[in-house]
Structure formats: structure tokens, C-alpha cells
Amino acid sequence: MNTTFRFSRTAFSRTAFSRTARAAALLTAAGLALTACNYEEERGEAAPPTAEVAQLSVEEAWIKAAEDGMTGAFGTLVNDGDRDLVVTGASSDAADEVELHEMAADEHGAMVMREVDGGFTVPAGGEYTLEPGGNHLMLMGLTGPVQPGDTVTIELKLEDGSLVDFEAPAKDFAGANENYDGGH
Ligand SMILES: [Cu+2]
């Protein structure tokens, strides 16, 4: 778990100082768009795609209502594309941090939740289920109470850098009180 923590700190600082890099990427994207327009004008046909848009959606999303601390978000990740999509991270205004969790047996054989290694892989044309007792999104350090009827927006980050937002309505749920093997 120490390794994971160190990794996320590195990722964070990388994000902080990569503003310039991002601005450069935006300029490049603008340049590509111009190139695509020119291509279309010259050839009279649509340009080949220069960037693929992630074809990921989240169906039947919901989040477990909670007063404070942490809570789980669930739903079905649906991949309409023809290549696998990997969710590598998530964030939300409703929490300090959002982790990708899985359930696994600890050294005593008890089922505990922990950060998943390598993200959630949604197969091409397939689904990936997030549910109580299984894989889930863990919102940690809630910034306020999540009450039944509230809607929480969560942003998924994909391996290719694209972002997918979805809304999760909050509801009361008695389960999903898994023990956390976070080691911190
Ligand atoms: Cu969890």
C-alpha cells in the first residue's frame, strides 16, 4: 500500500506541473483540427479520425448515502467501442479522493476491499460491473453528507487520458460496509 501511496503522490505532482504540457497539447489538438479541415477541403471527403473519443458510458449508476467519511459508488460500465477501455482513476467534487476498489481475501481469509491493481478494464463491446461486495468506486473524505435523492457527479479518467462524467443518484443501502485494507 505504501507503493500505491507514493505512486499517487507522484501522479499528483506530475499533474501540477504539467499545465504547460497540457496547453501545448491543446494547441496541438487545435492544429490537428485545422489539418483535418484542410484535408476535407482538398479531398472532398471526411478526414480519418485523428483522436478517438472514449465510448464509455455508465448505466444504472448510484451511490450509497452517507453522512461523512467514505462511501461506495456503483453501476455498469459499458464499452460501445471496438477496443478495451481501462479506467485508471476517478474524482468527484463530493470527496477528497476517489479510489478504484476490488474485494479480495486478506491474509486471514477475510474479504476486504483494497485498491485495484491496473484499473478497471472494460472489454470492447462489453461491460464491467461495479456492485456492493464487488468492484466499486470508493469516495473517501466526503466533503459533505450524501443524502438520499442527492446526485453526485463522478469523473472517470481513462488510460488514454480521456475523461467520462456520470451522475450517480444517492440512495439508502444497508450493505456495502466492507472492511478497508487500505493500510492507512
Ligand atoms: Cu472500497
Automatic annotation (TrEMBL):
Signal peptide start-end: 1-23
One Pfam family matching this protein: PCuAC
Keyword Flavoprotein among UniProt keywords: no
Keyword set, alphabetical order: Signal
InterPro entries in the cross-refs: LpqE-like (IPR007410), Lxx211020-like (IPR058248), PCuAC_sf (IPR036182)
Entry keyword Signal: yes
Protein's UniProt name: Copper chaperone PCu(A)C
The species this protein was found in: Arthrobacter saudimassiliensis
